[in-house]
Amino acid sequence: MAHDGARGRMTPRPPAPAxxxxxxxxxxxxxxxxxRAALASVAAQAHPVQRIIVCDDGSGDxxxxxxxxxAQKWAGQVxxxxxPHTGHPGRNRNQALSHLGGLDWVAFLDDxxxxxxxxxxxxxxxxxxxxxELLGSGVTAVGPDGAVRRVYRxxxxxxxxxxxxxxxxxxxxxxxxxxxxxxxxGGFDEHxxxxxxxxxxxxxxxxxxxxxxxxxxGDPLVVYREGQGIMASVGLDWGQRAFALAHIxxxxxxxxxxxxxxxxxxxxxxxxAEAALAGGDRLSAWRHALSAVSHYPxxxxxxxxxxxxxxxxx
Length: 314
Prior knowledge:
20% strand
């Protein structure tokens, strides 16, 4: 069902440049109050947005009414896409793929996050300079009471594949990318174990591996609510993280991206070592820790090995 928002209280905005039509994909599940805030932050953007696609993961509550009410007030097009509950953020967001026609750029926003009013404007200033195909931003993390807990400012500029393999500097709600790139990549990985950590990271890795220029802005343009997402409910699962890193590494051609692949495998072994320790398998932990150092001999790998050694001595 599509709601084409009628012009109401909001002041009409000038159209975006011909090559700058922007759509926003919002995944949601049973958080209508937070969804209202997320939608309001999109409506408040200084840079115009042509379409909002709300992908509902089978909420079965008043979420649809929240979207319908918003559509009556907003000057752009609102598309409501509802599917059965899967609990998979990437699969939920991929429901938007068939509704992206006519757009040049796609931005993502989780229902528990909001944007600063100049988020898209600041990013568009960089996009207009040309070259970039995926652009992220910094994040302000707040607690349930709204108090600022930390501010994450990634380095501004291009992120090389090897740098990305070592650490994920992108927050999903901060990313805007070319619609064609998103479609060419086939959206987010829908593997059932790529939930909670990894499905978004996999998309950035695949974009970089195919040669897309990906960058970050260091300014915190997203407000992220800590303690509200999937990771808050499932906790840090080293085994799941180890699986995701291996799954991502296996997709990279060894010859073309050997360095990035080795880094990912090193991180996989470090996570697997921690998972083995948590499960009481110290021999497996020792083997994985040594493999982590072999593949990726940097401080994080050595720290994992030291952790295993300390635990073996206990």
